[in-house]
Records
---
Amino acid sequence: MIRNISRYIHGTVKIKVSGSMPEKFINLCVMKNIYLWGLAKRNEGLFVCMSLSDFFSIRPIVRNSKNQIKVVKYYGLPFIIKKMKKRKMMVIGLILFLCVLNTLVSYIWFIDIIGTKAIPAQQIRDIIAENGLRPGMLKSDIPVKNIENQVAVTLPEVAWVGIRFTGIHAVVEIVEKTISKPQDKEPADIVAAKDGVITEIIALSGQSVAKKGDTVKKGDLLIKGVSYEGGVGDSTTINPIQQRIRAKGIIKARVWYESYGESELLTTIHERTGRQDIGVVLRIGQQEFQLKKVAVKPGDLVEVDTFKKKLFWWRNNDIIVESTISTFYELNERNVEIGIEEAKEQSKSRAFTSLQSLIPETAHVLSRNIEVLQMPEKNLVRIKVNVETVEDIGQFMNITIKNEISMPSQYN
């Protein structure tokens, strides 16, 4: 290992010795204490390696051995230095590039806000900008701890805030507090959230209006949010006073859902041909400059992917430089035919997908019914899906009370 490093530092030359007696050249080198290695004999001659300093002293040996030599390879630090001397401007440019790159990396150019849910990201940006974290700031001049404290003090809903630097990015990580919503205590009835047939109803607070087996529609009253002073059904209470309360209860009902899904047996798809073109638009402030335009003819099938990148011009946030790069992909139109069974599966999948947003996760599915509909179009397969569930259909309906006092004649 040390020998290889030494050879690289001092430089190595690989030569080809050709002539009537190449072995004589080797013997003379040994006699002159010239170190050789990598000796290899081939049809075209004898190949051997030596140090760069020894290479300059072998001219008398070559003349005495009556052979010819040819340099076939050379490597090492002296040769690299020689190349660099010939290309001074490239070396200077490389050094300047590294210096500029090191300077740019010392600044923050982009700020990323992560972890926000209820808090607007722009609100975080405004707070950290007021306290010294803006694009174009030197990393060493940014008071990280002070900014973290200011964000936590200004926004009580923030549980933790951390700022870290990743290259030219400043990442502001926010952890919001989990604040439980205050329980609504306003007087309210419980009404049906959807149509169904009641299978179970238990009034924990208030008076049941519906009963098991009733068919209800969306908005129908199920549990009335009232209570009576003196107790319900108390014969000793002549004039019970009705009070409005927040009804509570368990209402489960059978609910039916219906959805449709369809698929074509012969469809037209568009595929990228591999040919593409790029358009570039540069916006500085309010001015736009078309750097590269892509001409799209009417009737051309293309797919466009647009990428926008904003850069803040030095430290002045009022001047924004934005580049818009649009990639235009050429498309090819192709007809694809699928079988009946595959079309049925696609239609069924689409029907169930549309039902997923309607059926709550807590619902218990009782049955599923899938029906293939006869369509006049021969190219179309349509599926109807019916799903029956048992679920809680109660929802609160708040009531505005204005000194409401009633004397019901009867109630259940």
Note: Residues 184 and 246 are 9 Å apart (CA to CA).
---
Amino acid sequence: MPMRILDDDLLLTIRGRAAIHDRRNDYFDDDLADLKRAGYLAALVPADLGGPGLGLADVAREQGRLAGAAPATALAVNMHHVWTGVARFLHDRGDASMDWLLEEARDGEVFAFGYSEAGNDLVLLGSRTQARPDGAGGYTFHGRKIFTSNSPGWTRLGVMGLDDTTDPANPVIVHAFVTRDGGGFEILDDWDTIGMRASQSRTTVLDGAPAPADRVMRKVAPGPSLDPYVLGIFTSFELLLASVYAGIADRAIEVAVETVTKRQSMKTGKAYAQDPDIRWRLASAALAQDGIWPQIDQAAGAIDAGANLGAAWFRQTAGIKVRATETARDVVDEAIRSSGGSTYFNRSELGRLYRDVLAGIFHPSDDESAHATVAQSLLGPLE
């Protein structure tokens, strides 16, 4: 059985706030405070560093439960867990270079993911942001990051940028961390989306944000890399993201079952749960959803066990992310079709899930990127 930190009462409280945050388009400060008190932000901190020691498979399941209560809260917290997942990935493989991050997460710091850039379909393989050497081993970062979840709440931001000036013939992607109190950035108040509103994933403009030498984690050549740091980012991001959307799908089925059990047909006088077409729709949704969690469990469990699949991790985890997000969209759609026109109102939880689940298509790896990854694994690189 997966280890748990989140109790049912806490999740019920968080669920009760989700619609309010969505309607107001504001941040989930109250949820974050409760999750901190519960020790959830330190979930992946190993026992030898004073944490509860949950594995990636445990946290993936917990993220699914949290997403079933409040998808936007889960999505934003995900970006914190991605970084603790990277640090744990390295720690478990004998690399202590990010133990500081695990210790800071244990002590209450909140991490966010400042990697996404408009038009950058290279994702981890390249960057539009400039990383400028500061002369003391550190860097300052200059560029525009989009979809920075946890914008109002983070205290530490992981960033990447391109240094093509130190050695123009051998440019490097610099991965580092900046702090909120270090300055050199502006967070725009531009998050007004149709879904995932409480995540407040605002644009972050970096204009000299400093990362000292001891917070520069990697300098990697642009392009594909099997550096454990890159592998840790990719696998943690994809699997935890998949778990959020799997949790949304679980909740959609649950709400639809409750709805069709109560809703009565004038034509037959029976609950819609007795309608063969409705039963087929929900059974179809459940059949699709039943295939997702075993994939997440298997891959996350393999990472916890220290498996070394090399480049195969990219294909496997990108595929799981795409299957989870696409299945979740189909599941929510079937739940809405089964539950009737009331779901078209903003007050409907299913209506909100319908808006939230759409965000899954925009996260990397997107459908096109995942297909390119799989094609390369099968056919080799494009000439």
Note: The chain has eleven helices and eight strands.
---
Amino acid sequence: MKRVHLFDWHKEHAKKVEEFAGWEMPIWYSSIKEEHLAVRNGVGIFDVSHMGEIFFRGKDALKFLQYVTTNDISRPPAISGTYTLVLNERGAVKDETLVFNMGNDTYMMVCDSDAFEKLYAWFVSIKGAIEQYTELDLEIENKTYDMAMFSIQGPKAGDVAMELFGIDINELWWFQAKEVELDGIKMILSRSGYTGENGFEVYFEDANPYHPDPEKRGKPEKALYVWEKILEVGKKYGIKPAGLGARDTLRLEAGYTLYGNETKELQLLSTDIDEVTPLQANLEFAIFWDKEFIGKEALLKQKERGLPSKMVHFKMVDKGIPRAGYKVYKDGKEIGEVTSGTMSPLLGIGIGIAFVKPEYAVPGVEIEVEIRGQKKKAITVNPPFYDPKKYGAFREE
């Protein structure tokens, strides 16, 4: 079982710690609902050091990343990020990632906790294949176990950033980053998050007592200091440590996809188009068509043939909590399946994401979700599920 730098702190303070994507992680400290509402109405802090970080260095790093990801990595200046996808040859999503231009021909890819190992192996194999024919000035390094990553989210996150770093995060564009220091500890701060709220995330290196390499193990003094400093400064704003339970309900209320649920590769080797592609998952905004990238040919074929299914958001009309795997119906006929679902802590109703036949993947369609043997009424909607004028990163103050 993998563990983050501050596992011992979480084990002492969290009420529930269990496995997630191969990591032993805090699920909640007080309750999912309390932590969820703290983020929606104030501020919360998440330890997301289980997220992967892969570094690419060298004069050919940009060209390589342009080939293995879908978006235009060349656009943002240092030290800013780009949301992009990694696809397999048949167009399915291997992972959703952020790629930060760190300057000096160096890039940091932030990827999902259960995808970084396969991505690292994938990139190394592609590099090796290219080097059979031409030389590459490229180094690829997996630094997941070395990097600590904390996410501070909520309408009061900006106040915390101002006190700690003297930075107004509202003056940063989304995914813009800066080099900062906290009492001598150097780190990268980016305006980013996975909750739908305004917020920022910090990245820095530190010793990890659970590093798989025994020679790199040590006390996480920097991580513990930064974590406790953020909690101390955020106390006046009602900050709460939040676990992965609230992180999931928050991202679902915002309508965000989750790798392994909405995005995945099924490795359907018998077909030239795998599932699930970004066209099916409403992620075409992350594709820069004016370049060549792995999976592009399959996506163009899918555009010509039409989509077998498409992602849609829905909220329950009848009482019931949708869960992944539940069947979706229209006029008594099965049309799809739920991939994520929960009880919205903010709205008090069941909400979810499903993949259905494309003709039903529009807002305002009455559907039914089979919950414990009974078909319950629901209706498709546009995300986010909350009123964006009252909640979220662009709420009207």
Note: The chain has three domains: 6-50+145-254, 52-143+266-306, 309-381.
